[in-house]
Design brief:
Blueprint: H1 2-18, H2 35-53, H3 59-73, E1 84-88, E2 95-98, E3 102-106, H4 107-110, H5 116-131, H6 134-155, H7 157-161, H8 163-173, H9 179-195, H10 203-216, H11 223-228, H12 232-243, H13 257-264, E4 268-269, E5 277-279, E6 282-285, E7 290-293, E8 299-302, E9 307-310, E10 317-323, H14 327-335, E11 340-350, E12 353-363, E13 368-378, E14 381-390, H15 394-406, E15 409-410, H16 414-418, E16 422-428, E17 433-434, H17 435-441, H18 448-454, E18 463-464, E19 469-474
Helix pairs in contact: 1-6, 3-5, 5-9, 6-8, 10-12, 10-18
């Protein structure tokens, strides 16, 4: 009976896969996810990305990127998807596509580009992932693999013991596109840009800039491009082979440098301190006017909705975030959660601010946790500082959790409160000049090697011709 059920399920999977056709290639494609499901998944992923990363607060720039992306997408194989193109407030050079047509590009990547043709080639690449249903195929393979585990679990109790563990590994296995999918997305991006009249000869500049960025960052700040995409040299060579057959045209193809430079002039560069920033282990937030001290040597990350810190041994976590209501209301909601047992909870003052602090234990599917929750009020807002670890290790971390909570204080340092982000400034050079000479006359807030990167120049002695749009970084 169980074996018959296995064959029936496998037969159903096979029939579903046989009905799917790739809209780009016209070939059969494994697709256990319908278009409606793809769009709904994409909406959820996009909402999470916007919440975690935040969007650049520039309506004109957002509308510009949306217009360019829509122009490409509406001429693609899937024009009826709810296409969305957003610039996220992240300094790392990257771009990514959620299923169903939700495309994101970081302001860090915009800072590397020089013109509209380069931007369009990136948007076209991400559109290609969606039109070719790469994420759908990826999710379908993961579903099929997990289904296979389920069948194996029915047949063999030994397999059942490791089913959940194996399924988790498979989710990681299918987390990224394969290199063949990336190559196909490159080809589609090339075609989409060309069909809209853009000069695709600008496309190799993007790969070269990403390669230079990786080298300058020690390959640590751009892991997604290095890990999931073909090597930049290969991508440049492939595009150049296609450029050999580029047909001649009467009218010049669009580059759009003037329009692009006008849109990114004034864009925040690097970390934006108005969103909060670290000085050593101290986190300061100028707009919300508070500071908090995290443990030294803990790994920290400032997200759009939370600030988190992980212990060196990866067995404890501290999280800071805003929560609704007063400290009393927020504490009441927290400590009465199902599965959570509250310890001693009391009101106290923290650096002149009203607060509630309490210990707790919580039972999860994986382990029993123990921690300290601190709720503190400042300027009508309530902040929750949550520190927790596995219960057996809580005794070693309790004093640390409490110390972090009691370090919360009003930010009063005038310089910290006034701190502004560095910004990209575009200057048109009046005459031929080397980059190093330009930097001497127009000092930037970044090293000259980094200045060469954002200007797509080979180095400090590279020559900028008269009329060149030179980028510089101003601010502290």
């Amino acid at each position: 009976m169980t074996r018959m059920r296995s064959f029936l399920v496998l037969g159903l999977v096979t029939s579903l896969a046989a009905c799917a056709t790739n809209p780009v290639t016209g070939e059969r494609q494994l697709a256990l996810v319908s278009e409606g499901q793809e769009i709904e998944i994409g909406r959820q992923v996009a909402a999470g990305a916007e919440q975690q990363l935040g969007l650049v607060d520039d309506d004109a720039l957002q509308a510009y990127v949306q217009r360019l992306g829509t122009q490409l997408a509406e001429a693609s194989e899937r024009p009826d998807l709810p296409w969305s193109f957003r610039v996220v407030d992240d300094p790392t050079p990257n771009a990514f596509a959620a299923p169903g047509g939700f495309i994101f590009i970081t302001r860090g990547l915009l800072a590397l580009l020089r013109n509209e043709a380069e931007l369009v080639s990136i948007l076209g690449h991400e559109i290609g992932h969606v039109t070719a249903r790469h994420s759908v195929a990826m999710m379908s393979r993961a579903q099929l693999a997990q289904l296979g585990l389920g069948i194996g679990s029915i047949i063999s109790p030994t397999v059942a013991q490791f089913g959940d563990l194996a399924a988790g590994g498979l989710q990681l296995l299918f987390l990224r596109y394969g290199r063949d999918a990336e190559r196909q997305a490159d080809d589609l991006g090339y075609r989409y840009a060309l069909e809209q009249g853009y000069d695709v000869r600008e496309m190799p500049n993007v790969f070269a800039a990403l390669q230079q960025s990786a080298e300058l960052a020690g390959q640590s700040q751009v892991p997604s491009w290095l890990a999931t995409h073909p090597y930049p040299e290969e991508r440049i060579a492939r595009i150049k082979r296609q450029l050999v057959d580029l047909p001649a045209v009467v009218e010049p193809r669009r580059i759009g440098e003037d329009d692009y430079m006008a849109r990114i002039d004034g864009l925040a560069y690097g970390e934006n301190p108005r969103n909060g920033y670290f000085e050593a282990n101290r986190f300061l937030h100028p707009d919300l006017a508070f500071q908090l001290d995290f443990p030294r040597d803990w790994r920290t990350q400032n997200l759009a909705q939370a600030v988190v810190a992980g212990s060196p041994r990866e067995d404890a976590l501290i999280q800071l975030m805003l929560v609704p209501g007063t400290p009393e209301e927020a504490a009441n909601r927290f400590f009465v959660q199902e599965g959570l047992t509250a310890g001693r909870v009391r009101s106290q003052g923290i650096n002149g601010l009203p607060a509630i602090v309490g210990a707790f234990q919580a039972q999860t599917e994986q382990a029993q946790l123990a921690g300290v929750a601190t709720f503190v009020a400042l300027e009508g807002r309530t902040y929750r500082i949550l520190g927790y670890s596995p219960a057996p290790r809580f005794a070693g971390y309790e004093s640390t959790f409490r110390a972090v909570g009691t370090s919360f204080a009003r930010l009063t340092n005038v310089e910290a409160l006034a701190r502004q982000p560095r910004r990209l400034s575009v200057v048109r050079v009046p005459r031929e000049v080397t980059l190093s000479e330009f930097d001497r006359r127009n000092p930037s807030a970044i090293p000259v090697e980094e200045l060469a990167l954002i200007n797509q120049l080979a180095g400090p002695q590279a020559v900028m011709p008269a009329g060149f749009h030179a980028k510089r970084i101003i601010g502290h």
